[in-house]
């Protein structure tokens, strides 16, 4: 079960923190009525509201334009934490599922992690769909339409149109094509509710990565796994006490691994002997992850050199 901490080192912009999208939103730049703009001034999340989207899809598309096009160009890279999940599946075959609360779609960059193993609880930016008929749209064609039809409110794309026009669904004809993210006041994907009961039934280890465990229903996975299952939480601070997690002085079931997700999970991958398996993705990591991994490679080489020198001295004696 993963949250925002899994993707933080990718550098993808944050929606909720100070300086994030909600904090800096300027409704007057959006294609919206005065009433809609005032509603967004009072509550920035209205820009991503399901009801508003069906009434006027342009504010949602204008706000999300850089995220949609950035996803297509792989502006943000899958992190070491993502690579851990990929290797967990590749090396052991024991991964039942990755439930991610993130909408960045970075898991799709992990080509050895089948998409069937990933359930994006709140949807994902790397897909497109019609909010009216539910038809799945071609993501590349959707991105092309966003680039040509949706204005850039940040003013960074000189080729963007000065006026936004709706993106029409080829199937139903409604102007309601959007990234496949769950908008506010809309239901979660049916796949989540259909999959959880079977997925948790035989779990013997739940790994929680970078989440506050504050958002339902994803956080219910923590107490829906069998009582015999161990639960490992990788996070900067302990979480989940109200959900029954108990780290204690002598934990029997729950283990807290404090730290940044990349650091902790790289330690785990090293301990599992998977360090060399990461060489092939070194160039595909965010800069911070690349530097962290290069440091581990240097440390590993130094250790190997020291070991060889010691063995040579012993042999000569």
Give a written overview of the molecule.
The structure is a single chain. By secondary structure, the chain is an alpha/beta fold. Helices cover 36% and strands 12% of the residues. It is built from ten helices and eight strands. α8 links the parallel β6 (205-209) and β7 (230-235). α4 (58-72) packs across α6 (139-149). The protein starts with 20 loop residues before the first helix and ends with a helix.
The average pLDDT is 93
Q: How far is the N terminus from the C terminus?
A: 53 Å
Q: What portion of residues belong to β-strands?
A: 5-15%
The largest pleated sheet is described as:
3 strands, antiparallel
Roughly how much helix do the residues carry, as a percent range?
25-40%
Q: Report the uncertain regions.
A: none
Separate helix tally: 10
State the main characteristics.
317 residues, alpha/beta, 3-stranded antiparallel β-sheet, 3-stranded parallel β-sheet, globular
Outline the secondary-structure elements.
Layout: H1 21-24, H2 34-42, H3 50-55, H4 58-72, H5 80-92, E1 98-100, E2 118-120, E3 123-130, E4 136-137, H6 139-149, E5 177-181, H7 190-200, E6 205-209, H8 221-224, E7 230-235, E8 254-258, H9 261-271, H10 287-316
Parallel strand pairs: 1-2, 6-7, 7-8
Antiparallel strand pairs: 3-4, 3-5
Question: TL;DR of this structure?
Answer:
The chain is of the alpha/beta class.
